[in-house]
Amino acid sequence: MNSNARDTTGSSSTSLWRGEGARSKGPSLRLFSVVERGLVVLLAVATLLFLILPILIVLPMSFSSAESLTFPPPGFSLRWYAVFFSDPAWMIALRNSLIIASISSVLALGMGTVGAYALVRGRFIARWAVEANFMAPLVLPSIILAIALYIAFARTGLLGSLAAVIIAHTLQSVPYVVILTSVAISSLDSRIEDAARTLGASGRIVFSRVVIPNVMPSIAAVGILVFIVSFDEVILSVFLFGSNFTIPKLMFNKLELQIDPTITAVATLLILLTVISLGCVALLTRRSGLLLRRF
């Protein structure tokens, strides 16, 4: 009896001691948690400001009335936008960028979507080698890819042509299409395709009339992303386009030779294009998620 009483008393005193310790440590743990959350928020805000600061500087400078790059701008003016839209060199560069980005995006979507479907649904020998081949342009630095294509196109006579840049941009964009489209195809229930085959549909019909319509929002979103990637590419254009210009290449050339305030207007328009494109991607991605959840 006495021993049981002592054990009970000892265990109760121990539990009380532990409870007091937990209660005594509670405020300090909560204080540490608050401080930790504060540091995380502070780091996130500092990182966001670091990323946004160049944009906050470029945007006002594009409306500056000064003859050179000046911050803060002394006055408001749209002269640099007028210079951009009235300069034939900028318009030719814009036309080249739009042509290259549009054609390379369509080609990359076609090849990348077929490749993604084969990698997700296919079962064949050396599948890893095919996947590595698709991913190679993404793993290699752009300058290595540019040098390799420079040598290849110099031997075939395509160097300096529009076709050379389109091929190069397509090769660079295909990995993005394969990676992102594979996610959408993997999310699609394969039983839908099995049901179509059971009803007599061929593989081509299943792919074109079952798979593609269900993942079309994701394909459209990927198309916008690879369009932006191609439109902003400068290294491949510098190596392969000869004396011709795209928008990024002409911007690079202007910065190298002289400080032209027109660049700030062009940069602002590119920022606007990127923001609108990312908004469209967000809407398409959301629609794609809702569509896939129905199945």
From TrEMBL:
Membrane-spanning parts: 39-63, 98-120, 132-153, 159-185, 262-284
CDD domains: TM_PBP2
Topology versus the membrane: Multi-pass membrane protein
ABC transmembrane type-1 domain location: 94-282
Highest taxon listed in the record's lineage: Bacteria
Compositionally biased spans, kind Polar residues: 1-16
Compartment(s) of residence: Cell inner membrane; Cell membrane
InterPro entries assigned to the protein according to its UniProt record, in alphabetical order: MetI-like, MetI-like_sf
Key words of the record: Cell inner membrane, Cell membrane, Membrane, Transmembrane, Transmembrane helix, Transport
Region (Disordered) residue spans: 1-25
Protein transport listed as a keyword: no
Gene3D superfamilies for the chain: MetI-like
Membership in a protein family: Belongs to the binding-protein-dependent transport system permease family.
Name used for this protein in its record: ABC transporter permease
Species whose genome carries this gene: Mesorhizobium humile
